[in-house]
Amino acid sequence: MEDIASYVEPLLKKWREVYKEEKRKKPEKTEYSELDPLMYFNVKRPFFVKLSPEDPTYVRTFRMISYGMLKYSPSMRTLILRGAGYNLARKLVETNEIRSIDDLPRVFLKQKLGLVDIIEESFNRMKVNLYECISCYSIKPVGRTLCDFEAGFIQGVMEALIGKNITREVYCWGLGNHFCGFEVVFE
Ligand SMILES: [Zn+2]
């Protein structure tokens, strides 16, 4: 798949419709259930499977670790994954692997974390969506967000490139959405 950009563009368009629809929808009562490990581990992400057929194996390994941490201690998992994402992002900016916000989608794609879509960019606020997220794509709602590594990563990139901020995950498969959405508010 040489020309990834021309393939990703229409996909983002399709996903953005999902976002708009769910943003518009009145929040309804969502049924939450326990995270089922078998369903959590076995997932086929349509875009990433096309990109590399071994994708389900990568995702499975990542989710096994993530699930293990969640079972051990949800609060420690959040702290550690957030910190890991944050530190990694700062490092990648320091070593010039990330030079501008435009590099964020490229790195997420390369590491198969998900498809980044920058929804809004203003001087004090940003909205970043993530589709086919490695941490939560296609899970049943569990009543919490799960993408702490991704949130920390976005926060770290934004801090290194722009300035101190608070990054929150506001949409997530874990909450009943069909994508992830992060809000970055600069101090
Ligand atoms: Zn998520």
Structure description:
The chain has 187 residues and is an alpha+beta fold. It has a single domain, classed as Trafficking protein particle complex subunit 3 (Muramoyl-pentapeptide Carboxypeptidase, domain 2, 2-Layer Sandwich), CATH 3.30.1380. 50% of the residues lie in helices and 15% in strands. The protein has seven helices and four strands. The chain has a four-stranded antiparallel beta sheet with strand order 1-2-4-3, with helices on both faces. A hairpin with a 3-residue loop joins β1 and β2. α4 packs across α5 and α5 packs parallel to α7. The longest helix has 21 residues. The model has no long low-confidence stretch (mean pLDDT 95). The structure holds zinc ion. Zinc ion (ZN) binds next to loops. The site of zinc ion (ZN) has 11 residues, from loops.
Can you give me a brief rundown of this structure?
The protein is of the alpha+beta class and 187 residues long. It has one domain: Trafficking protein particle complex subunit 3 (Muramoyl-pentapeptide Carboxypeptidase, domain 2).
* Coarse morphology: globular
- Level-1 CATH class name: Alpha Beta
Residue stretches low in confidence (pLDDT < 50, at least 5 long) are none
Estimate the helix proportion, in percent.
40-55%
Order of helical and strand elements: HHHHHHEEHEE
* N-end to C-end Cα span: 40 Å
- Radius of gyration over all CA atoms, rounded: 16 Å
The number of domains is 1
Structural class: alpha+beta
Number of H/I helices: 7
The name of the CATH architecture is 2-Layer Sandwich
Q: How many individual β-strands?
A: 4
Mean pLDDT: 95
Q: Taking strands numbered 1, 2, ... along the chain, how are they ordered across the largest sheet?
A: 1-2-4-3
Name the hetero compounds present: zinc ion
**How much beta, percentage-wise?**
5-15%
Largest β sheet strand count, sense and barrel closure:
4 strands, antiparallel
CATH topology grouping: Muramoyl-pentapeptide Carboxypeptidase, domain 2
CATH homologous superfamily title: Trafficking protein particle complex subunit 3
